[in-house]
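Hi C.,

You asked whether I'd gotten around to modeling the 314-residue construct. I have! Everything is below, sequence then structure, no commentary in between.
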Amino acid sequence: MSWYASVLAALIAAPLLALALVVAANWEPDRPLAQLEARWAQAPSVFVQVQGMRVHLRDEGPRDDPLPLVLLHGTSSSLHTWDGCTNALKPTRRVIRFDLPGIGLTEPPPDANYGIERYVRFVAAMLDALGVPRCVLAGNSFGGQVAWETALAHPARVDKLILVDAAGYPFQPQSIPLGFRIARIPLLNRLMERSLPRRVIESSLRNVYADPGKVSPQLVDRYFELTLHQGNRRALARRLAQAPADIRPGRIAELKLPTLILWGAQDRLLPAADADSFHRAIGASRLIVFDRLGHVPQEEDPAATVAAVMQFLS
């Protein structure tokens, strides 16, 4: 081998070796489901079969509530993001929350379809399974888009709508969490299915919180361990790949129901300009902006979120 060929081979081998070392040092295969469920699916969690998937569900509060609140989480999150809100609301309201397909502890969809219409059909099927003819539907981020798309597809089933830093307009972030960036890169997202540094999750959470000091080790544990549920990492990459085709902002103006729009002014993933766009498009809407909160206000400050929700509902 010539000197030139030897140098070229070394230059190619060096980054590959470095990449292999990083992957080996952060090797994280899927966690056993029993281990995840023991920590993250304690009572009142139950599992139900819907559309061929095992779905993680929590259904709390008085069963005679004629308009239950159904709470939808965002991408890479889980039903736990609504813990603080649920604890405040469940003494007087029935509160239903579940992990969306391919997120949290709910199985990925058997057809590998992660389009918005697939998620809308899933929400409707969950309402059917729970015997809920009509509800107040709330959603954060991607869950917010699922919520308003469900309200359009099934207007007789949604009495009021609550959008919390909701998706729906063309994606123009000021900053993208590191985990999302990796999930969008073809080679790296495949490596992420078996290798995942915990610091990637911590960095992503600090990115979406206005106050990174609120990102506790326990919070990072939850997001990190639930990401390791079988199929979740591949589902994230596929969902992000399909997401651009699901952006249909022209339909938002079709929403005619009472709508509460909550937004963190410090949201760098879905900037507050989107909140103004939702407010202008939905005639029967009220907008509240939290000056010191980020992309997940229901998690960062549940008390402020609940106060706004209770005022809206009353």
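If it helps when you're writing up: The longest helix spans residues 3-25.

Thanks,
B.
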